[in-house]
Amino acid sequence: MKLQRKNRLRALSFGAIAVSGALALTACGSDNNSGGNGGGASASANASNIKCDNAKGQLLASGSTAQQNAIGQWSKDFMAACSGVQINYKGVGSGAGIQDFLQGNTAFAGSDSSLKPDEVAQSKKVCKGGKAIDLPMVGGPIAVIYNLDGVDNLTLDAPTLAKIFDSKIKKWNDPAIAKLNPKAKLPNLAIQAYHRTEDSGTTDNFTKYLKAAAPSDWKYSGGKAWQAQGGQSAKGSSGVAAGVKQTNGSIAYDELSYAKGLQMAQLDTGASKPVALTTDSASKAIADAKIVGADGDLSLELNYATKAEGAWPIVLVTYEIACDKGNKADTLPATKAFLKYISSDDAQAGLANQSYAPLPKEIATKVQSAIDGLS
């Protein structure tokens, strides 16, 4: 037993391989969740399709927990195909991962947001003759979950959601909800709106959606901390899901992996018909994003107010951050080979099994081209 405990503790060290497990999509490294659906179905690709090139040695990386399940599975796949490589990804949060990278401690970082201008400037110290660039890699859908007896197909829109979460709409039979659901038998029941207790990237992305799609109804500045008054709070994605599951009349925002077994609302986005959340509909929203990075950087500007047909607008994207030039010679081959693999069709196709959204083909192609140019 002592040996098992020692090995378990050792597996939590920086050199441990991140393995897909209890962590589920959290939208931000500051989220500290437990529970959820870590995958079940494997995201493994055919090992014969993985090109090792000259990859060898140990590849250290750290950052966002939002993508940790995906990176964990991809690492296992890659190491199974490329026996000379050890990939060690530590989920420490986006901010800490970027700092590890800027201090020259890691080959790349994972982040749920693109680099800030001052971070790009700092990166020139570790990227000799170059700078850090953002490479989009994993899409993260955020669901609107609810628990309402007798109402199986609920449709909401951004203004109504904003009013619900700002305690302006307090009953399920409110006229605004009834207008969107003319066939539903809405009860005269108080709405219990759940939000995250702690700072959360999920909160940040959900409120970005409300700000963009319902600016007249959501007046808060947004961010990782919940700002509106009223409602119920719960800690972690699992706590929010548990609260909704136990409470008739409840509603919340949560990662798709935590929504399984719960009712999910559709969104009236202004498209021809309401949009249901799937990994495919989340990918369509990412496809409607604009690449706003320049000089090799591929940072995206998501269109939270998208009206594209079949596009679910509440989504986030994580990035792998690497040097465009000036990578260390001993880690460059492994960095390029691994990043090229995880942006490949095979690797991206497996994301849906873990409740992530694959990159649209057009964006993935640009990511692969940028990876080819790393030096």
Automatic annotation (TrEMBL):
Give one Pfam family, short name only. PBP_like_2
Q: Where is the signal peptide?
A: 1-24
- Alphabetized UniProt keyword annotations: Phosphate transport, Signal, Transport
Output the CDD domains linked to this UniProt entry. Answer: PBP2_PstS (cd13565)
> Known SUPFAM superfamilies for this protein?
Periplasmic binding protein-like II
InterPro entries cross-referenced by the UniProt entry: ABC_phos-bd_PstS, PBP_domain, Phosphate-bind_PstS
Q: Which positions fall inside the PBP domain?
A: 55-345
* Family the entry assigns: Belongs to the PstS family.
Q: What is this protein called?
A: Phosphate-binding protein
- Which species? Streptomyces beihaiensis
Lineage at the top is: Bacteria, Bacillati, Actinomycetota, Actinomycetes, Kitasatosporales
